[in-house]
């Protein structure tokens, strides 16, 4: 059952439409990320769910109840912000107790529930410390504990990791996921960081200029983007423009400046006409002659980047298009800059997108 149901939400500030006809549901226990570039309307959407902004039109239901006339304090939501928002003059225990007191939790329950939730976020023994005596990651877990201890219907997290350094982000990402899952807490996380969304969420709502571009699991969003924007925003991509004609069954042929490309037509892909092919770098292989990919393209190697566990080769196709192929960094010899390379891919390695859809 949907714990949160947003129906055709719109919000404008003056003549600027920040959120435009946003509709989605979040199911019990699900973690959903609102992902998109700066200014696409993620935070405004979250603020409307929390009750800090009123939609101009559309309806929001939490646990089946219409939120239209409910102020923020009458919505059972937990909030976590990027700057932790802990009270600096209170101890960790007092911070955690604060929300419970406000909600009328019986006095005798507060201390045991505080200790229990600190165990659950793996911070036993810090109850008498003040926030400044904790690391950024620990403070964020206290903020999480403070919100979770009130047993909200839904947790709203706004860029919860953006104040932390890269290594800690990765670690806390896993911890937050584990904690939210252990509470079976329905959650929405706002982030502009695609890796964070992919690592944390069961589903991603990808937004662009106030509208929903695609709602999907992280894997499907990466493997089967529906628009150029989605393909471009998530991960890296090579683009080849051409004209699609339908062959037999689910096979298509795309005529491109670098030759004909055999593609697999998927549900929702264009039937014919101008298209853009999206080929992920790890799907564009340097062919060594042992396998014969369906599409082979001659190119000139330009440069090689070693990026930790991966090697990225940049090469130029005959029509001048710069493409990248990604290989595992396992000590294989890479083509020298200026040398000829043969790149190849199969019909399933590319996604066919409508060309008119500007990224
Ligand atoms: N109170 C407001 N008054 C005027 N414009 C606003 C207001 N709140 C948000 N906006 C505008 O609405 C748009 C969407 O803002 P929002 O904060 O929702 O975007 P976002 O996707 O969360 O971006 P970011 O990641 O930068 O916070 C932005 O252009 C922003 O300037």
From TrEMBL:
Keywords: ATP-binding, Nucleotide-binding, Transport. The keyword Transport applies. InterPro entries: AAA+_ATPase, ABC_SmlMolc_Importer, ABC_transporter-like_ATP-bd, ABC_transporter-like_CS, Mo/tungstate-bd_C_term_dom, P-loop_NTPase, Transp-assoc_OB_typ2. Residues 4-234 form the ABC transporter domain. GO terms for molecular function: ATP binding. It holds the Pfam family TOBE_2. PANTHER family: SPERMIDINE/PUTRESCINE IMPORT ATP-BINDING PROTEIN POTA, SPERMIDINE_PUTRESCINE IMPORT ATP-BINDING PROTEIN POTA. Belongs to the ABC transporter superfamily. This is ABC transporter ATP-binding protein. It comes from Flaviflagellibacter deserti.
């Amino acid at each position: 059952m949907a714990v949160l149901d947003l129906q055709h939400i719109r919000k404008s500030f003056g003549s600027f439409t920040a959120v435009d006809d946003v509709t989605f549901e979040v199911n019990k226990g699900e973690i959903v990320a609102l992902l998109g570039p700066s200014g696409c309307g993620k935070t405004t959407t979250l603020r409307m769910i929390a009750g800090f902004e009123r939609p101009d039109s559309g309806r929001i239901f939490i646990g089946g109840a219409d939120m239209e006339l409910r102020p923020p304090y009458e919505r059972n939501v937990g909030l976590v912000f990027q700057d932790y928002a802990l009270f600096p003059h209170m101890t960790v225990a007092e911070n955690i107790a604060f929300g419970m007191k406000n909600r009328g939790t019986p006095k005798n329950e507060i201390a045991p529930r505080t200790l229990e939730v600190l165990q659950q976020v793996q911070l036993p023994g810090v109850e008498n410390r003040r926030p400044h005596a904790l690391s950024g990651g620990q403070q964020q877990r206290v903020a999480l504990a403070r919100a979770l201890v009130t047993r909200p219907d839904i947790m709203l997290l706004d860029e919860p990791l953006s104040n932390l350094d890269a290594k800690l982000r990765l670690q806390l990402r896993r911890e937050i996921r584990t904690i939210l899952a252990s509470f079976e807490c329905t959650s929405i996380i706002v982030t502009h960081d695609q890796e964070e969304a992919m690592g944390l969420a069961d589903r991603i709502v990808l937004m662009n200029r106030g509208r929903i571009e695609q709602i999907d699991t992280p894997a499907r969003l990466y493997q089967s983007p529906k628009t150029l924007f989605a393909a471009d925003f998530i991960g890296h991509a090579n683009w080849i423009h051409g004209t699609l004609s339908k062959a037999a069954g689910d096979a298509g042929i795309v005529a491109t400046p670098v030759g004909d490309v055999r593609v697999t037509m998927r549900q929702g892909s264009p039937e014919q006409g101008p298209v853009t092919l999206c080929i992920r770098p790890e799907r564009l292989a340097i062919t060594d002659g042992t396998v014969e990919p369906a599409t082979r393209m001659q190119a000139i190697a330009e440069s090689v980047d070693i990026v930790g566990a991966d090697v990225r080769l940049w090469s130029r196709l005959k029509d001048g298009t710069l493409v990248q192929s990604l290989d595992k960094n396992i000590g294989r010899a890479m083509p020298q800059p200026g040398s000829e390379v043969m790149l190849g891919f199969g019909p399933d390695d590319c996604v066919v997108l409508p060309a008119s859809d500007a990224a």
